[in-house]
Amino acid sequence: MSPHSPAAPRPVVVPDVDSLVSRYVTPGMHLHLAMTMARPNAMVYALARQFAGRGRFTVSTSATHTAMHALTMSGAVKHLITCFLGDTYPTPRPNPLYRDLARDTPFTCELWSLLSFTQRLMAGATGLPYAVTSSLIGSDLERGLTAESPGARQEPADERAQGPKFLRVSGQAAEERPFGLVRRLRPDLTLVHGACADRRGNIVLVPPAGEGAWGAYAAEQGVLASVERIVPDDFTDAHPERVVIPGRRVLALCEAPLGAHPQSLRGLATGDARGDVQGYRDDYAFLTELVERLATEDGAKEWYREWVEEPAGHAQYVAKLGEARRTELALAAGPLTVREPAAPPLRSSAGTPAAEPVTRQERTIVLGARAIADRVTHDGYDTLLAGIGVSHLAAWLAAALLREQGVRVPVCAELGFYGMDPEPGDVFLFSQLHATRSQQLAGIPEILGGMVSANARCLGVLAAGEVDADGNVNTSLLADGRWLTGSGGANDIATGTDCLVLSTASPRKFVERVAYVTSPGARVREVVSHFGRFRREQDTRGPFRLATWLPLDDGPASPQEAVATLTRWPVSSTGCTAEPEVTAAEIAWLRGLDPQGFYR
To answer: Would you say 122 and 131 are in contact if contact means Cβ atoms under 8 Å apart?
Structure first.
């Protein structure tokens, strides 16, 4: 169609998600699955049903987990553009579906960090060929984005003709940090799940925003949308500030209650019954079962048959969940009542050692929290960015320790959470319950850009699959070719601000040289293990040394022996000081957040 031809009437309202994708999606398309906290999972299942074995899709999505596993198993994806492949609940971990990703199985894959991925969408959305980023520099992510990589070879010729995906640019002055140009991302269609929309296609999204509307604006042809409910036009007319995606970007839409399940959707409570939407939590039981069943090939096939093939559509999927489960998942309308933490105040037994056995992982979290608190009080950091894993529990505990010293430091998470106050008993970093208890709900550019990359007083806190003596972190690929999970926002944090890294120590994790540099170590100030803290002093690029020592009950008897036995690092332990014992208060507070013991 000519840019000046009369526009076709839009959008079209169709009966269900299967009708939506079968009518507007064709094999070979580039589909973008928008990450707005409420993922378009009902449409993802529909894609798997409608295009199994024949989709030949290029798919871009910031994270590949949960419902995306169904699309992977369907064989509909030829090429994937993403930042993370694995599972995030109950803890971040690899998924066997992607074990051989480095061998282009189950598809070829192009790997990015979360902020650089979003910046590509922003370039596409604003009509620019490239966006500027300070992410990726010095990592194997940067090295992988070359014309020789398998992912690059899978690109359509017209996209390859647009130029390289990443170009490094040197700073004009020695003190400037290097940056690069990332090529725009322009999918054919973007799939979005919203809280509600009117029949003109104006879509209401509820924060945290994740990537927000950038994917919708970047799409060449437009948006396919599912929503919890279609509302009267006069509702959106009365609440224009809630419309995030305008109707002129939308090709077609349909209703799909619980369309983000098994993930969550934050509700809409305006006091106007015409448009209020019931929110729902992440279905932790479903997510846990998914991880367990996909651990084996037979279990994965059976799960796919039960939850993707057998339901003829989304209505049958929702009915299969059952009324009791749907009721249990419902979020309370409006703000939750702020409750006191389940654990006692940390000062109540500040010096009392823990009576019960403390695990290696709990020791790592507690020592990490102490290191964070020390850095905030001594070095003046005013914001914490928590990566998922032991790192976010350490950041939460550090914020509690600092509060008891009269210091308040906001904890942020990459999808748009600022000033998180975690809900006791809910250990998932991206829970909607934490969203309700946050000071601000924004998006990826605001947090990873504004609060991290542009904020010299932010301290990042990261977990590691491997970490080497230069501080480089690997969460991507092992030396034997097995895939881990990928960067997510970790690379953006490590390239944008000073960091602490947490990991229980073993020769398998504290390696001489990481197999893959996901996150460069130049700005890592400390690495925290379960037996002590490795610290760089004035020169952040200098060597680490073991600065503190927490004796082990069932391991090496001295700091020197611990370093030699539990790491492959050639570092000194001379002059290390005693680390105070883990206290009963610290463990009680930590277990109040994690009563199920996922991080023990």
So the answer is: yes
The token duo for 230 is: 């279609």
- Evaluate whether 290 touches 262 at the Cβ level (below 8 Å): yes
**Sequence letter at residue 50:** Q
- How many Cβ atoms are within 10 Å of 335's Cβ, its own excluded? 9
Cα distances (angstroms) measured from residue 83 to each of 110, 416, 492: 8, 17, 11
- CA-based R_g, the chain, Å: 24
pLDDT at 149 over 70: no
Distance CA 534, CA 89 (A): 29
pLDDT in tens, 75-112: 999 999 999 999 999 999 999 999 999 999 999 999 99
Pick the more confident residue, 537 or 63.
Answer: 63
What is the β-pairing status of strands 524-528 and 498-502?
Answer: parallel
pLDDT in tens, 317-342: 999 999 999 999 999 754 444 444 44
Instruction: Using CB atoms within 10 Å of the CB of residue 356, give its burial: 0 to 12 exposed, 13 to 18 middle, 19+ buried.
Output: exposed
pTM: 0.94
CB 227 within 8 A of CB 14: no
In the numeric block, the tokens 């949960």 are attached to 66
Residue-wise DSSP of 280-320: B---HHHHHHHHHHTTSHHHHHHHHIIIIISSSSHHHHHHH
Could you tell me the CA-to-CA distances from 591 to 288, 358, 423, 600 in Å, in that order?
Answer: 20, 11, 13, 9
What does the alpha-carbon distance between residue 81 and residue 31 come to, in Å, rounded to a whole number?
A: 10
Q: How far apart are CA 304 and CA 73, in angstroms?
A: 8
